[in-house]
Amino acid sequence: LVPGRLLRMPGDAVTPIYLVSTFANFLLCAVIGALLRPFSARPGVALACGALLSLTIELSQLTGLFGLFPCPWRQFDVDDLILNVAGVMAGFYLA
Prior knowledge:
With 95 residues, the chain is mainly α. The chain contains four helices and no strands.
C-alpha cells in the first residue's frame, strides 16, 4: 500500500503470503477430510462435519475467540468457509 492512499487496488490483495495462507488452509482441511473417511463412507457426513468445523473457526475469529478478548485483526470471511469445506470434501474424496 502507498502511504496516504485510502482505497486498496484489486491487485494489492494478491500477495504470496495470502496465497500460501490460502493453500495451507485448504491443505489442512483436506487432511481433516481424509481423516474423516475411515469413520464414514457417506459424503454428507463429511460435508456436515467440514461445514460445522469451518463455521466454528470463523465464528471464533468474528467474536475474538468467543468473547474472551478483542480480536480486530481477525475477520469473518465467507470465502474461507467455502474454501475450508471444499478442502474437507477434496480430502474425503481423495482418501
